[in-house]
Known about the structure:
The chain is α+β, with helices and mostly antiparallel strands. 54% of the residues lie in helices and 11% in strands. This is histidine kinase.
Amino acid sequence: MGPDPFKDPAAFGMVTAPRVVLAAAAVLVGRPYPLAALVLLLPLGPWRFTEGFATVDLSWLLPRQGVKIFPLLPTSPFIIWYAYLTGRRLSRVWPAPAAFCLVTCVGVSVVLVMGGDLALWVSMVTALVGTYLVPYLLGLLRRRLLQQRRQTRLSVAAQARLRERARIARDMHDSLGHDLALIAVRAAGLELAPGLDPAQVKAAGELRLAAADATERLRHIIGLLREDSDPPPLSPVDEPVVGPVDGDVAELVWRARDSGMSITLDLAPGPVPGLARAVVQEGITNAAKHAPGAAVQVSVSPYRVAVRNGPPRSRPTALSGGLGLAGLRERVRLAGGTLTAGPAGDGFELAVTLPLTGEEDPLHSGVNRRPDARRSGA
């Protein structure tokens, strides 16, 4: 791109040496500041129209033959690379158009100095588009695609966190909420037991109130965990069951009876639905919290699980939150069943109907809901 240093050392020092210094400066600033490198390389831009990517014969339109399309110089690949990096890395918008206006002014000045005929304008426009504009747009497109990919990855991570929060909330409700409800039942039984002195009766009452207060705090914590986390599924459709389901149901009933609840179990022969334990646990917990002292009847068959309680014998201390039934309703829906929860006679009933294994959902995934049914607090 300059004089031969052996034949004309003086011209080499005047022309080529400054170009080398300019290119070295562009290399130094090009990685962190590609737009600055693009401006530094302006004197080495595609302003000589002797060689090009293609040569077109426009003699039918222009007096000059052999018009160069997309002129190329030895420095053109480096300029194209820095133009791509400008679009790829530059976060602000206005510096690139300002630099491209400067580049356009230089190109227009070069064409005017060279005579300004139409062939030169064609070469200059293709040089600007091919060397500066197209690489910049490709870099900009790459940056937008990477940003979109990053946003997708962050969204997937956020959804995973929401699912985990929902799972933790469900586990806390199913385990801690159930145990606290049984503790309150045991404390209520001790409070009414004969032979205790007033101090012991008072202590049992305080224990019952403390269990109810802990249940309320747990409900608030679960609400915080499940905030904005309802859209993701709370559990897979085919939830794995550890151990015999009927044994789990019988153990739940036995623990509730041992804590002082009046509860009976009607276990029909045949396979037990995988969600039976969750349904029975939710029903027993609701009965213990919202109908203290009521008789509870648990019915489990291959296609239906129901927990029904009578009227409460004392005033309930827990507030209705609805979080437990909301999660259970979603799990039942994913399993292709229906859930109804509402008044039944003088008490309350939670009932879940599930299709048999390998059978199509006869109730269309839970859309047939009893009109008078409502959610109970959990």
